[in-house]
Design a protein that fits this description.
single chain, 410 residues, alpha+beta, Butyryl-Coa Dehydrogenase, subunit A, domain 1, Butyryl-CoA Dehydrogenase, subunit A, domain 2, Butyryl-CoA Dehydrogenase, subunit A, domain 3, 4 domains, eight-stranded mixed sheet, 13 helices, 10 strands, 49% helix, binds flavin-adenine dinucleotide
């Protein structure tokens, strides 16, 4: 095993980590290769995760959750990711992301719906990205038109995780009032049907193959007004507040990358003690020892940043991790993980390149985490804009703090 850094974990956190590690090795690891090969969402694993109490842990006890902290969720995600990326992403998205948003801003009916579906084994989908609105999410053109007590949603989202298998969807759309006035961007909760909320394409992905990514088309999807997820700030500022909940997902995504790296390093450590060349275990070569030490150092730094971000809260009484810490942790951990996994694969020589070992799967899976959930470049922009206190030219109104560069110069 790689060096374990407990970084001040409490006895109950250590117990949870140990339980998740046991589950990961016993239940998840034997299934990981087949999930990737068959490209099938693993319903059996979801059921097992639900039975073990790893779904909806962060939800309030009153709704069937465990009032678990984000750090608790992170500990479970890390252990699952060592064995299977798809499984760890299921834990992320049933404890963070859309669930964080609904639990923070939802009304009682929305919370009850989300909690019920998650406890039944649903992995909610969060629908933001569109073909012409990726990093520039505010350019979205999916629209929600108010008609009496309902909103009618039309448009298209792509690269939606869980498309075609998720039941609950948190859809972001530009909202128009009865007179066609642009009110801003809002979140809408809808349950999949096969008419108005349809899967229109499944992506063929490089990795993460058991988790469907797809395009969703909304054709006059009717969402009742009581299913609008609305922060107190209203539609005009609402998108920025809704996106704040995404800081939990960011910590979760960084943790998945870190967990994959930890799993790869575990494999590498065992191998360098066992594989002999030039009459000795390859781990006796200093060239590899220094690589190992660098891998462990990067992993420890990632773990410290992610645990700290999970424990943190943003300014102004936010219920979510601090945006600066979450962004920095995701940038660092996702980039470090790509290097660690590729170095681990290198230790196996030709065998590392074979599909018989998990390293090539890990290398394909880990590549995603500098892209999804905010690219490494866009997160750097967010960090820099906060450092400078400026609205940077490559951001849109509403994303960045005032004063703008021009305000500051005047
Ligand atoms: C596996 C996977 C799962 C995903 N799941 C979801 C999901 O569930 N829901 C969802 O809504 N979306 C999801 N996404 C989409 C993801 O959030 C977007 O891919 C991401 O926001 C980037 O958008 P884009 O792909 O359109 O790239 P673009 O925005 O077109 O960016 C292209 C390149 O330009 C760079 N760039 C863009 N703007 C700037 C800037 N201002 N400064 C510097 N560089 C910049 C980017 O970093 C990137 O390298 C997923 C993506 C992947 C790969």
């Amino acid at each position: 095993m790689t060096l374990d850094v407990s970084v001040g974990l409490s006895p109950s956190e250590l117990a949870l980590q140990a339980r998740a590690r046991d589950f990961s090795l016993r239940v998840v690891r034997p299934r990981a290769a087949a999930i990737d090969r068959d490209e099938q969402f693993p319903a059996d694993i979801v059921k097992a995760l639900a039975g073990a109490g790893f779904l909806g842990m962060t939800m309030p006890k009153a709704l069937g959750g465990q009032d678990a902290s984000y750090l608790d969720a992170v500990l479970v995600i890390e252990e699952m990711a060592k064995s299977c990326t798809v499984t760890s992403r299921i834990v992320v998205e049933t404890n963070m992301g859309a669930i964080s948003t609904v639990m923070a801003y939802g009304n009682p009916a929305q919370k009850e719906l989300a909690a019920r579906l998650v406890l039944e084994g649903d992995k909610p989908a969060i629908c933001i990205t569109e073909p012409d609105a990726g990093s520039d999410a505010m350019a979205m053109t999916t629209r929600a038109d108010k008609r009496g007590d309902v909103f009618i949603i039309n448009g298209k989202k792509h690269w939606i995780t869980g498309a075609g298998v998720s039941r609950l969807h948190l859809i972001f759309a530009r909202v128009f009032g009865e007179r066609g006035d642009d009110l801003g961007i809002g979140g809408f909760l809808a349950v999949r049907d096969d008419k108005a909320l349809r899967l229109t394409k499944r992506e063929k992905t490089m990795g993460l193959r058991g988790m469907p990514e797809g395009e969703l088309t909304f054709d006059n999807l009717e969402v009742p007004a009581n299913m609008v997820v609305m922060p107190p700030s209203g539609f005009k500022r609402g998108f920025a507040d809704l996106m704040n909940a995404y800081n939990s997902q960011r910590v979760g995504a960084g943790t998945v990358a870190m967990g994959i790296a930890g799993g790869a390093l575990d494999h590498a450590l065992a191998w360098v003690k066992q594989r002999e060349q030039f009459g000795r275990p390859i781990g006796e070569f200093q060239g590899l020892q220094w690589m190992l030490a660098d891998m462990q150092t990067q992993l420890t730094a990632s773990r410290l940043m992610l645990y700290q971000a999970a424990r943190s809260r943003g300014p102004d009484g936010s219920a979510f991790p601090d945006p600066m810490l979450a962004a920095q942790a995701k940038i660092f951990a996702s980039e470090a993980a790509i290097k660690i996994v590729h170095d681990a694969l290198q230790f196996f020589g030709a065998r590392g390149y074979s599909r018989d070992l998990p390293l090539e799967r890990m290398a394909r899976d880990v590549r995603m985490f500098t892209i999804g959930g905010g690219t490494a470049q866009v997160l750097r922009t967010l960090v820099a804009s906060k450092m400078l206190g400026w609205k940077l030219p490559q951001t849109r109104d509403g994303y960045a703090p005032k004063p703008s560069i021009r305000d500051a110069a005047e």
